[in-house]
Structure formats: structure tokens, C-alpha cells
Amino acid sequence: MKKFIMIATVFTLMTGVLTGCSGNAGSFTDKSTANETTKSSQTIATDGSTSMEKVIGFLSEAYMEEHGNIKVTYNPTGSSSGIQAVAEGRCDIGLASRDLKEDETADLQGTVVAIDGIGIIVNPDNPATDLTIDQIGKIYSGEITNWKEVGGSDAPIVCIGREAASGTRDGFEEVTGTKDKCKYSQELTSTGDVVQTVSGNPNAIGYASVASVGDTVKMVSVEGVSPTTESIQDGKYKVQRNFVLVTKKDTALSKAAQEFFDFATSEQADSLITEAGAVPVKR
Amino acid sequence: MEKIKKTARWMERAMNLLFLVCGLLTILFVVLITIFLLISGIPAIRDIGLGDFLFGKVWASTSAKPSYGILPFILASVYGTLGAILIGVPIGLLCAIFLAKMSPKKVSSAVRNVVDLLAGIPSVVYGLVGMIIIVPCVREIFHLPDGANLFSAILVLAVMILPSIISVSETAIGAVPKEYEEASLALGATKTETVFKVVVPAAKSGIVTAVVLGIGRAVGEAMAVMMVAGNVANMPKLFGSVRFLTTAVASEMSYSSGLQRQALFSIALVLFLFIMAINLILNVVIKKKV
User: Fold this and answer.
1) Are residues A86 and A154 in the same domain?
2) Same-domain pairing of A181 and A100
3) How many domains does chain A have?
4) How far is it, in rounded angstroms, from Cα A256 to Cα A119?
5) Whole domain around residue A220: which residue ranges?
6) For the segment B211-258, what is each residue's pLDDT rounded down to a tens digit?
7) Quick one: chain A helix, strand, coil %, rounded to 5?
8) Using an 8 Å Cβ cutoff, are A248 and A87 in contact?
9) Domain PBP, which positions (chain A) (predicted)?
10) CA pair distance B45, B265, nearest whole angstrom
11) Which of A135, A250, A276, B72 would disulfide-bridge A54, Cβ 3.0–4.6 Å?
């Protein structure tokens, strides 16, 4: 009996690994995951941006508490993968930490659920307190290489960034107009790494979700505006991006998913979104 | 009696079968992985072109005009490994000699335990220590703007390969017949001369094995390197941020799609071929006993 259980576990694990790995590579596994999601309508599958983990976690937890029979799942794959997943019907709601691109809006509908401010962080010892978007862009594209040019001490600037597929990097490069032009000194794979590195290097500059910035680093104001709820909400703080729920235009959501969607975009969700460190949409 | 014998025989056969299945399973895994890597790695290479892929100097997988050249990764891996060997082998070898020939028994066993412990430390811990201690130190000592570079990675790798180098070469040195040593000492050679002119040459094949194992470990390491090397796809410079073959796969895999994803499989294939080559060399060395 024990043996049987062992073998059964191994097999389940193996199938899990197989479906997990080839999430968007093999077409045959795509089909099987699609079946899984449609089979039980009481599961709401979300898929996408890793930056939205906290927001979606808070929302789904609160929602599941109210509706005991419904399960909200979250698959952190990245914005583009999430959009692809909802387009292919592999999940109910896609999560994107960027606005939809033109070719994506043909079949898909994006609804802003929250706004994320991207904080520009420097070491606490750094005397620089304010940068303009233009300066940030020039720093990251390598035109400005010394802190004294932007109000700091005479020291080289070390640009810390995220890996190529990061939603935060995408948002940051979009706002600062540095797409594909950034000369990074380090490309790290998580927000925590960026904060850690900047806190350890007096010459470093980095970017991270305002929510995840602790007090080990200093956030500078951008064009005189420091990132606060109000300044992010009314758009005065420029380095920000939208958290978007992506749905299909021509297919209606399942009843449970629609309810969750309404809940997430309602005023009710505002406090949860704030708790999760993002900024709710202005109503 | 007869019955017991029968059961025993049956049991024996069943166990034999079990062992056979386990053995075959291992082979199956290797074969499956090889086939999988070949199937998923070759299409991208064909798309990109072998020359552009292996010798292209620019990796920009997500830019508007993607470019998939992995020469920076290959060179970073090669330089990183060479550097680690350059630092790690002398330290490891001398430590092994110390353990096998010089130190008192008690000290030996204590040091051996510490070395085993070193082998058991997870690579993410090496990475963390490197990130928090080595990277800032390298920055301070060499007056660099940033300490996350090839050199830091080499330091971390050098420590990581120590355990395998020490334990394998210690075993090899320990296996040299006592008579060699005694003969050398009797001829008037000092202990140091004996060790370096008699014992080490006699244990050459074991030491080479140790080095090759170290190379294997260094080439395959991803986590620790990812945390200290900076991960920017530059052509490698000693004090510049670099990305290794392993980290190239690890840092982009979770988000990739399309040709980018296939290209990552191709990188994995290249890495796999590297490791295969290293194993092949190892086999030759062991068989020949140099």
C-alpha cells in the first residue's frame, strides 16, 4: 500500500512538473491546462505579471474568504505571458503590469485595477534628492555618468536594473524613454535584490515598486514630486504604470470570474489595494 | 525447507529485476534529457544560424530587433571557470597535501569535517554571502564603482570548487604507496621534496580528476554566480558585469516566449555539450591513469 502511495505521488509530481514546465511551449499541454480551468467553474484562474502578486493576493484572499466555494489561483508568469494566456483561453483573467499594446487590444479588453508607482531609489548616503525624467533617462542610457552632474557628490553612477522581461523594467524604460538603450551595471532578477544592492552601494541608482521599497534605501522625488498616493493617483508623479486586468472581448467571463472582476474593480477593493502597497484608481 | 529456498530464489530474482529497472531508469533519464535538449535546442540554432549564435557578440533577446549571440556567455563561463581553477586548484591541492601528509591525525579529521561541511552548503548561501560580503569588498579594495563582476564570481566559484578538489586529490595522494615515500626519504630528500617530486607526480591522475570535477562544478553553477556577477550580457572583462551560460538560461527562462525561449534551450544545449566534453575528458583520464 505504502509503495502504491509512493508511486502515485511520484507520478502526480511528475505530471505537475511536466505541465508546469511547458506552460507556453508545447501546444499539447496548453490544451490540457485549458481543460482543467473550464472543468470546474468554481476556480478562477489568473495568470500574469509578477509585480501584481501582492495586489492580486490581497484581492483574492479577501474574495475567497467571502465566497468559500470559489478558488482564485494565480500563476506568476509575467505580463506578456499572462496576456498570451488569456488570449489562448488558458486562464480567466490575465494580469498585466503595463497597458495593452495596439495589436493586443483587438481581441482583449484591459481594465485598470490599480496604479503602481515606480520609485527611483538611491543609497541613503547619496546627497541627490531630486531628478528629472530626462536626467534619469540620461543616467540609464549612459550620457550622465557622474553624480555631480545631477546634484550629488563626485562619484560614478552605477545603474542597477531588472532582467529584460521584468514588468517593472518595462514600465520604467517606457516612462524614461530608454527602451533597449539602458547601460546596466547589474541586471537583477527580483525587486528585493535591487533594493539590497542599492542599499549596499553608495553610488548605485535603481528602481522598484514604491510598495516594496523599505527604509534601507532613499526614494528621490521626480521633477519635484515625491511618490505619494495622491501624486501617483493624479498622475503628477510621472514614473508609474497601470496594473491591468485583461479579459477577452468576445467571450464572457464565467459567473464566478465576473463577480471577482467586479469586486476587484469596485470601491470595496480600494483599501485592499492600498494595503498591498499599490494605489487604487481615482473614481 | 525446499519452500523457503524457493521463496528466497524468487525474492532474489525480484530484487535483481528491481535493480535492473533502477539502473535502466537512470539511463532513460539521461537519454530523455539529451533527446529533449537536442529537439528543443536545435530549431533556434537553425533559425539564428550556428555562426551567429555561437559567435555573435550581442545578446538582446527582448529588444525590438532581437539579437541572439552567446559568445559573451561562453567566454564568461570559460574565463570564470579558468579563474576559479587558477585560484582554487593551488589552494585545494596544498590543503589536500596538508591533510594527507603533513598534519596530525586530529587536525586532519577536524579540517576534513569542515571541508565536507563546505561541500554541503547550498549554492544560494554562497551567493548570498558573496553578494553581501565579497561584492562590497571587491568594490572597496579595487576602487570600482560596482563590485558585481567577473572577479567576484571567480572568487565565489573558487571557494565552491574547493571541497571536490580537496577530497578527490586527498584520496589520490593517500593512495600513493608508502614505499615510494620511504625510498625518497631514505635517499636523503626532505619531506617537502618528497611530497612535490614523488607523491604528487604519482597521484597525478587523481589530481587531474579532481581538477576536472572542479571545472564541471564551476561551469554548471548558476545560483551563486547569478547573485554576484551582475548578469549583464557584456563581453567579459575582469572587472565588468558578466552573464554566464547558466545564468543566461536561469534569468530569462521564467518569462521567455517564442524564439527567445528556444534560444535559451539552445544555450542549455551548449552548456550540456560543455559538461559532456568535460565528462569525456574525465573518463579518458581515469582510464589512461595518465
Assistant:
1) no
2) no
3) 2
4) 35
5) 117-233
6) 999 999 999 999 999 889 988 888 998 999 999 999 999 888 776 667
7) 40, 25, 35
8) yes
9) 35-267
10) 10
11) A276
Q: A-B interface: how many C-beta pairs under 8 angstroms?
A: 77
Same domain, A183 and A107: no
Any A CB within 8 A of B234 CB: no
Q: What are the cell numbers at B52?
A: 551567429
Q: Could you tell me the three cell numbers for A244?
A: 491591468
Domain CATH number, residue A51: 3.40.190.10
For B137, phi and psi rounded to 5 degrees? -65, -45
Cβ distance of B241 and A186 shorter than 8 Å: yes
A93 and A122 assigned to the same domain: no
* The three three-digit cell numbers of residue A177, written as one number: 524613454
Evaluate whether residue A168 is within a structural domain.
yes
Q: What grid cell was written down for A34? A: 485549458
Asked if B131 and A196 come within 8 Å (Cβ–Cβ), the reply is yes
Asked if B176 has any chain A CB less than 8 Å from its own CB, the reply is no
Nearest one of B139, B160, B135 to B85, comparing CA atoms:
B160
**How does DSSP assign A39-67, residue by residue?**
H-TTEEEEEE-STTHHHHHHHHHHHHHH-
Do residue A213 and residue A132 come from a single domain? yes
A100, A134: one domain: no
Q: How many CB atoms lie within 10 A of CB B171?
A: 15
Contact (CB<8Å) B132/A200:
yes
Amino acid, res. A185 = S
Q: What is the pTM of this model?
A: 0.76
- Considering the domain boundaries, does residue A28 fall inside one? no
Amino acid letter, residue A106: A
From A172's Cα to the closest Cα of chain B, the distance in A is 15
ipTM: 0.73
Q: Where would I find the H helices in chain B?
A: 2-48, 50-55, 71-97, 105-120, 123-129, 135-141, 150-174, 178-186, 191-194, 200-202, 204-220, 223-228, 245-253, 258-288
Residue written as cell 485592499?
A: A272
pLDDT in tens, A61-109: 999 988 888 899 988 877 888 898 898 888 999 998 888 888 888 889 9
Cell digits of residue A217? 534605501
- Burial zone of B151 (CB within 10 Å; 0-12 exposed, 13-18 middle, 19+ buried): buried
Provide the angle, in degrees to the nearest 10, between the axes of the packed helices A133-140 and A167-176.
120
Q: Can you name the residues that pair with A161 across neighbouring β-strands?
A: A187
Residues A96 and A140 in one domain: no
Question: For A165, which of B135, B147, B255 is closest by C-beta distance?
Answer: B255
- Check whether residue A125 and residue A226 sit in a common domain: yes
Classify strands A221-222 and A130-131 as parallel, antiparallel or unpaired.
Answer: parallel
Please state whether B119 falls in left (phi above 0), alpha (psi between -120 and 50) or beta. alpha
Domain-located, residue A23: no
Is A17 a member of any domain? Answer: no
